[in-house]
Amino acid sequence: MAIGFGMIGCGMISRFHHRALEDVRGGKLVGCYDRNPDSAKRFADEVGITAYETLEEMLADDAIDAVSIGTPSGAHMEPAVEAAKAGKHVIVEKPLEITLKRCDAVIKACEKHGVKLATIFPSRFHDAPKTLKKAIDGGRFGRVTLGDAYIKWYRSQEYYDSGAWRGTWKLDGGGALMNQAIHTVDLLQWLMGDVTEICALTDTLAHERIEVEDVAVATLRFASGALGVIEATTAAYPGYLKKVEIHGSTGSASIEEEDIKSWDFAKTRAADKAIHAAMAKRKSGGGGASDPSAIGHHGHAMQFADFIKAINKDGTPIVDGHEGRKAVEIILAIYKSAQSGKPVKLPLKSDPVMKGKK
User: What is the per-residue pLDDT for 286?
Assistant: First the structure.
């Protein structure tokens, strides 16, 4: 029997979730709810599902086994907690939430009520990062020395003006880092391991009427001793593919969007030939570099498949709540360092207080 999903929040991302579930066996989108009834009705009519007038009505429906949350980032906690109380499994669009306190409230509610929780980070499910992760864990890089992430994207002023929540601390939770770069921040920490210290600068250089950063640069120290850099912006016209680079004493490799772009090791292996052959053939599209609607939904589909498997097999999703929290903590530490002008140690003891400008 297919897992019935209810969509909470019917903006642009709801279309990606619907398309992902259309491609997955064992799951089906059956209903939706939005605080704006017109948005819910429009989406429901578009994809042929039920629009509920209230969240309570949707959560009371036995046809709904799980919810997919696509509300503004700072409005994830409340519906997630209510869904958990109602016994519904919860999958949340990134970020899990915008503060550690709110992340922890979601995690605690899902654990208390015995439901599964996943945070959507589809980049972890692509072949290139999985291949890179296997090489790191297998020791091919020797002593890993550097891990870098570059997210040089572009968003127009119209993008920020299109929604009152965009570019605010309260609901967006941040700018280029919390909204756009968080996928790659998650990927970097998944590959490199825990971050222990951060020193950062952020600024708002190219956009008006937003409280948050459109440019950020951070230097990192990982628990392994390796160092790293995160560069993120929504002010780099026309927008370039996101990149992750890993370097070590016996090897270096890089990913651009979903493709391996470099793969160089002191000791070669037979499998390297296939990787180099694939490198010559593949070419990623633009992803979300300049158009947020241009991202593919195939990563979402793989993550929904993993989530459905965890429900049916009583397992743990690959990116559960605790995993989803990690990127949020790194980004909050970057904000804290940028605002204090001082290095910041991780783990954070509490959420930093954010200050911005308009």
Answer: 61
For the chain, the three-class secondary structure string (H helix, E strand, C coil) is CCEEEEEECCCHHHHHHHHHHHCCCCEEEEEEECCCHHHHHHHHHHHCCEECCCHHHHHCCCCCCEEEECCCHHHCHHHHHHHHHCCCEEEEECCCCCCHHHHHHHHHHHHHCCCCEEEECHHHHCHHHHHHHHHHHCCCCCCEEEEEEEEECECCHHHHHCCCCCCCCCCCCCCHHHHHHHHHHHHHHHHHCCEEEEEEEEECCCCCCCCCCCEEEEEEEECCCCEEEEEEECECCCCCCCEEEEEECCEEEEEECCEEEEEEECCCCCHHHHHHHHHHHCCCCCCCCCCHHHCCCHHHHHHHHHHHHHHHHCCCCCCCHHHHHHHHHHHHHHHHHHHHCCCEECCCCCCCCCCCCC
Q: What is the pLDDT of residues 249-278, one digit of tens each?
A: 999 999 999 999 999 999 999 999 999 998
**What digits encode the pLDDT tens for the residues 285-303?**
667 787 776 677 899 999 9
Q: Which residues contact 21 (CB under 8 A, 6 or more apart)?
A: 5, 27, 28, 29, 301, 304
pLDDT score of 288:
79
**pLDDT at residue 281, as a whole number:** 81
Which position has the higher pLDDT, 7 or 291? Answer: 7
Q: For residue 44, what are its two tokens?
A: 């429901």
Is the pLDDT at 152 greater than 50? The verdict is yes
Closest alpha carbon to 147 in 177, 190, 201: 190
pTM over 0.90: yes
The pLDDT of residue 181 is above 90:
yes
Q: Are 84 and 107 in contact (CB under 8 A)?
A: no
Q: Are 236 and 153 in contact (CB under 8 A)?
A: yes
